[in-house]
Amino acid sequence: MSAETAPRGWFTRLLINRNYALYWTGISISNFGDFVFSSTLLLWISYQIGHNQAWGPLAAGVLELCIALPTFLFGPIAGVFVDRWNKRRTMLLMDVLRAALILLLLPVSGVIPGRLDPLWQLICIYGDIFLCTLCTLLFSPARATLNRDIVPDERREQASSMIYSSNSTFMILAPLLAGILFFSAGAVWALIINAGSFLISFCCILAVQAPAEAKRSEQASLFQEFTSGVRYVTGNSTLRCVLVSLFLLMLGGGITNTLGPFFFEHSLHAAPALFPQFEAVGSAGLLLGALSATWGLRRLGALRTFQGGLVLMGIFELLFSRSTSLFPAFLLTFLTGICNSFLNTSVSPLAMRLVPREYLGRVFALIEPGMRLAQLISAPLAGFLISHYLYHLDASFLGLHFGPYDTLLGVSALLVLVSGLYACFSMRTKKNSVETRH
């Protein structure tokens, strides 16, 4: 008996259960393939297809549009289909379709002799990314619901931490691998890795023994189910507060992502060549935060971790915006990364306790468009304000100097801090129903 129970106890402590071990393996490998592919796409367009061309930056920018457009047009309605369909079968189908779509790019990657016209290469890439995004819009909500089905409530924090730990690791490793592969062999290997990762994910999800899904009674129309999902989100005060907080967070994030390199050079007076190391420090903070998130979530609960992560992140980013030298900036970036991981890890278990299973697909499908909308509002707005109004800003107030980049990064930090304070004061009630304390 001891020979059987000891390994099983060790296994369940580490990987929760057999189903989640398979699920986590498949999702992690698939995410790694995505990170390698995403990093390669930018290199492919910038340094090969549009290299030394005036339209090169525009071609790279259109990539974001190819992801944003289907997200806005089909993202919210995708959740309705996910709530109707079998979640595991939906994931399996989307993995196969995405693998096939990625492999369709091989002919334009240089495998076949002869150079394709750059315009046709871009059209093929844009169309492929558009279709892959549609598949992901169906895959992601189904994945969240399957996660809820196979992970016990008391282990959801650990499950979320495991996913973010692997993602944080891959965010460090994938760009390095993508650069090595692209500059030595072109885009071919990134396509093969990504397609292979989808097929491995397919095999892992196929082996998951998901609980049988209850057959739904007479279905309402697509529009009725969509509006019922929107009504549920807007009618649940706690869930509504979470979404508003995330929207404010991403408004700030769009500013930071856009102006980060400029702040690094002009406000910190650092060499641009050091910026990759600066980002690596933030990624290291993300990784450490993800690895320790389970410990924090068990002691604080998902709700308090969410609230505290936002407030501390806003404080660290505000201090960062006032930095004028590298060491404090690196330290604050590392601490911000830790808070970011705690925040990200808390969202999934928090949402799963707030949302009934029959609404999960629609709720998760509404989160991504909302967050992307916030970034698309703040990122170009920050660039516009710098270019037209703030570029020559040179002011002092209460002994503090304000230039264009540190000022807008301060605004970004205040948005994050406001989102945290809003979460704290708006979600003081119903804590017992939101989270399980361990």
From TrEMBL:
It is found in: Cell membrane. Pfam families: MFS_1. PROSITE patterns: MFS (PS50850). CDD domains: MFS_MefA_like (cd06173). InterPro entries: MFS (IPR011701), MFS_dom (IPR020846), MFS_trans_sf (IPR036259). It comes from Thermosporothrix hazakensis. One of its GO terms (molecular function) is transmembrane transporter activity. It is a multi-pass membrane protein. Its main location: membrane. The chain crosses the membrane at residues 21-46, 58-80, 92-112, 118-140, 161-182, 188-208, 241-264, 270-291, 303-320, 326-352, 373-391, 403-425. Residues 19-431 form the Major facilitator superfamily (MFS) profile domain. This is Na+/melibiose symporter-like transporter.
